């Protein structure tokens, strides 16, 4: 093994740069050359590469997003797209590729490995934290702290008014972000993809909280699901039941930027080292994740399995709501 | 003068607590008693008062929102409401009242002063910064830095994608927040109440920027105007013209919370001291603001005049957009 | 079991309030009364208690430090002190006590349990993260992010100058904080209690880095050890070897304040729930920690055992230094 | 005028990059070429220049420090040094130079203008805010907010203990940073270069505060003056008088990094535009500052005059200390 590539694909996540950096440093320490592939699979198909040395990754560890850029590539989902990608990899002389992304990235990578025999190792990065085979994904902790900061700020102003606040966080198919930031922020209610949403039930619980504990404001954390901005609609529905004025915050991509936290940088660094080590050890078609504090490898094809919310956290949420 | 009251009214703003604290300290140093009136004019009408001493305001200077809570009171706009308010003031034995709020607060206060001869002095607090008679209102600097932090975070992720981002900030009738955070963040475009909005024009300028400078992403700062959440609609319209994917962030009440900045705490402190001093000096029916670095008094009835954006800042915005 | 107490002792740590809050909520949900003991063992000896209900802990989850205050109590180390503490516990009618603190707290608590048969359960809170029996202590993540923020800021200015920077973080007998913030910040060197410090060696490695990679500035993270402020002396020694100008930052108690991170609040909440559950289950003389993602109980007497730095992190540090 | 240079000199300050960026943009809009001079006067003497176009300054507005780097140059203080600098300017074909820095920078620049007839315009950037001829210097607001954040964090932990805390901020010859962050943070005492320091007096006032108001902790803000780290000595002296345990934080260069605030970026942008405009208008040997909200020009030779602290702020400090 003489030369490897690295790309970031899917939604960007804070900590990706720490991971890229660790991949480059580990490769160099093992006398491998490293090539950065720009804009994910779309760039791979087009052969958009850039050599990565120490200098290229200097002063990047603290920056959100990804210096390699990213994209979603419908073309890569077709056999023709993957044929072109394989050709690019051969042309660039890559003996393996580190794929930093989510389970969509890994489904594609799995096919590339199977169809073309190209050694690939994945690293899970997703602010939604919805990748099976790792307890935490790169970017989740930073995004959760961003959401928490929003909840804290809203709490300041919530106390000044009698109002209902909706804080919409990311989470397409999973409520990890909503759950952890909600517990940490003492939110009153969660609306997450894992549970069906009933405006009447949420309203009833809120009314009960107001009645029993004399509260005059409440914060509802909403996972955006399939429809960013849905909180405006939800707020409207609940207002009809509850008769309370409400206000909405939509965090959106705010959660993808900002300096990564310690946890995301350390996790990104550890997994970047692990991915290159895995390639050197001859592993292929797997993802390097962290399970119960240790590096664990999962076949790329399995990373899309449903990852459940921590039942203990689900259980304590209502106990701890403000 | 033996005893004064203080209230916060209208939208809450970070730095209000620093102002309340300065009012209390200055009053105590002048051997006045101080009474806090809760929930703005609504609480005043209902006689909801609380004595304020050193202890009551300890450890509040760094907290966003207002410890006295606030509200909007339709009742106070009626002569009957003000009659009840005047009765509360007499009952509480107040020789004067400091009103912390925006121009809506001051219109009401002006009537109270005229109709009932009650000494009132206003202090401008508004994250929109739309009060005439002061260069800056308490809360504006904190809110602007909150918006700037959002733009910085979006910039991180914007560079990772080819996309258009809309950051919706507060600003019902004025674009101060959008303008200052937009300049500081190097935003590409502003959509503000002071200017008519043409999706075609904005799209044309963005397209030109992409063409001339090879940019692949851009940030548009939108003042929420009369309709929070309007950015989703605007994003849709511009996408139709430009064919670019877009994402929306709605900051909403995020901008009212969080620890106030140095500027807002120092301004709040200075104006709180000035308001009590003004009452002691026999001033009435005026607002203590800061104009060109000095304390200036403006009749409450004039604080609703149109306050224009700084033409120099408007001029340099296009020069400095990223 | 009808009534329990909770105290915080030793150095305060961000997230302690989230833990207190979870103790109170869990107790109330199990129909226990809760009594807060102020100022740690010193307050326990003096019987300084305060009833804790829902209202008492409202709006505290986001605040650094501890609402119960803390202290170090030499008296409690004596049999007489513990006799008085046991009397206070009996007088307050407590059937068990949750001790939130570090291993010093737990040594004392262990004696109290043994000598007087009082049910006690500990929860590890220490920004140094030096408690055996838990992977992470409450407060560590917040403190590490505080240190990281400092390193990031220094990096900004370091690039503007040719200089050596020393960032002194906490860590009396252990280098956890220095190690994790150092990896996350891409620091060049670590000076930690686990390793002997040689100015000549550190200087040689720094000089080599400057020579090989053309760097002109570097950041050294120093654990304060037994002597806060020692970095001024260290900087002086290294300057003698290296001839480089240097600057020093001493973070000190900065790391104990500030809003706790998601991780510290969630950990504090989980462990607070676990501690009360443990008391209800009849456990005694143990600490509820988190090991490999799960709740684990360790006898209080063993929590002072040496806890080693993660060898994987130690190994990758030099690989990843900026 | 066809081509101008820009340099940063002296201590770096957050917002310098916003100023560089505004200089470049304004120059380009006026069809001037712009050359960046690296490492201040030291780089000027050595002819270290780099062309600056739109691309060079993209994505720099939010970064602390200065992308052009800075230095202190003893050589430039000699006539020989300035002769070499003048030769570099001629060689680079510069028709004028924008100097971003403090009064030391401007003394040198003034000589360059007088001795060699080179058009120079200064822009004040100094976190100490000690430049005469401008109300605020670039970097001050960011540094003050950094100091305030430290005080807020300390306040969290201070409440948990009975202790005295010393927060050492920058301020070589002036106490602007200490004063504004001290007011905003509700600090109990200030130790600043403008006033002689008596441990006995400070101790007496602190003791009185403890006695009268039942306080158990206090925060003293110390300007570092000529000797960074002096707070350890001061803490020792006061401990001798007061018998209170104390802790020290030394912020140092932390205050030079971090993302600049809105105020520093807007000020940097305005003054950068003003400086280029001044050169185009034929001004020379002056500094473009902001006085009472408007651009004002001051001869470079006068910028070293003593700039006094705002007497109103000095007056309210004791009124408002926590």
Automatic annotation (TrEMBL), chains A, B, C, D:
Superkingdom of this protein's organism: Archaea
Catalytic activity as recorded in UniProt: beta-D-fructose 6-phosphate + ATP = beta-D-fructose 1,6-bisphosphate + ADP + H(+)
The UniProt record lists the keyword Kinase: yes
Keywords: Allosteric enzyme, ATP-binding, Cytoplasm, Glycolysis, Kinase, Magnesium, Metal-binding, Nucleotide-binding, Transferase
Keyword Glycoprotein among UniProt keywords: no
Main location: cytoplasm
Enzyme class: transferase
Subcellular location: Cytoplasm
Cofactor(s) recorded in Swiss-Prot or TrEMBL: Mg(2+)
UniProt-listed PROSITE patterns: PHOSPHOFRUCTOKINASE
GO MF: 6-phosphofructokinase activity
Gene3D superfamilies named in the record: 3.40.50.450, Phosphofructokinase domain (3.40.50.460)
Pathway(s) where this gene product acts: Carbohydrate degradation; glycolysis; D-glyceraldehyde 3-phosphate and glycerone phosphate from D-glucose: step 3/4
Enzyme nomenclature, EC number: 2.7.1.11
InterPro entries listed in its UniProt record: ATP_PFK, ATP_PFK_prok-type, PFKA_ATP_prok, Phosphofructokinase_CS, Phosphofructokinase_dom, PKF_sf
Stretches assigned to the Phosphofructokinase domain: 3-279
Name of the protein in its database record: 6-phosphofructokinase
Gene that this polypeptide is encoded by: pfkA
């Amino acid at each position: 093994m003489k030369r490897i590539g690295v790309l970031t694909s899917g939604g960007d996540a804070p900590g990706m740069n720490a991971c890229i950096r660790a991949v480059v440093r580990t490769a160099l320490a093992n006398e491998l050359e490293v090539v950065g592939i720009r804009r994910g699979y779309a760039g791979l198909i087009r052969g958009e590469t850039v050599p990565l040395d120490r200098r290229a990754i200097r002063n990047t560890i603290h920056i959100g997003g990804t210096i390699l850029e990213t994209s979603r590539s419908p073309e890569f989902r077709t056999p023709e797209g993957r044929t072109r990608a394989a050709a690019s990899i051969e042309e660039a002389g890559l003996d393996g590729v580190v794929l930093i992304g989510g389970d969509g990235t890994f489904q594609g990578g799995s096919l590339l490995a199977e169809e073309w025999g190209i050694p690939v190792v994945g690293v899970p990065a997703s602010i939604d934290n919805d990748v099976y085979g790792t307890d935490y994904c790169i970017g989740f902790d930073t995004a959760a702290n961003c959401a928490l900061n929003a909840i804290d700020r809203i709490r300041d102003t919530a106390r000044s008014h009698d109002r209902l606040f909706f804080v919409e966080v990311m989470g397409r198919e999973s409520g990890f972000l909503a759950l952890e930031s909600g517990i940490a922020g003492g939110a009153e209610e969660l609306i997450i993809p894992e549970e069906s949403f009933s405006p009447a039930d949420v309203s009833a619980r809120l009314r009960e909280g107001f009645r029993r504990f004399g509260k005059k404001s409440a914060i509802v954390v909403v996972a955006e699901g399939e429809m960013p901005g849905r909180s405006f609609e939800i707020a409207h529905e609940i207002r009809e039941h509850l008769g309370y004025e409400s206000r909405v915050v939509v965090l959106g991509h705010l959660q993808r930027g900002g300096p990564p936290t310690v946890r995301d940088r350390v996790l990104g660094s550890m997994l970047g080292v692990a991915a290159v080590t895995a390639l050197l050890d001859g592993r292929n078609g797997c993802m390097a994740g962290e399970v119960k504090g240790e590096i664990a490898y999962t076949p790329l094809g399995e990373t899309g399995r449903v990852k459940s919310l921590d039942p203990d956290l689900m259980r304590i949420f209502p106990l701890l709501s403000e």
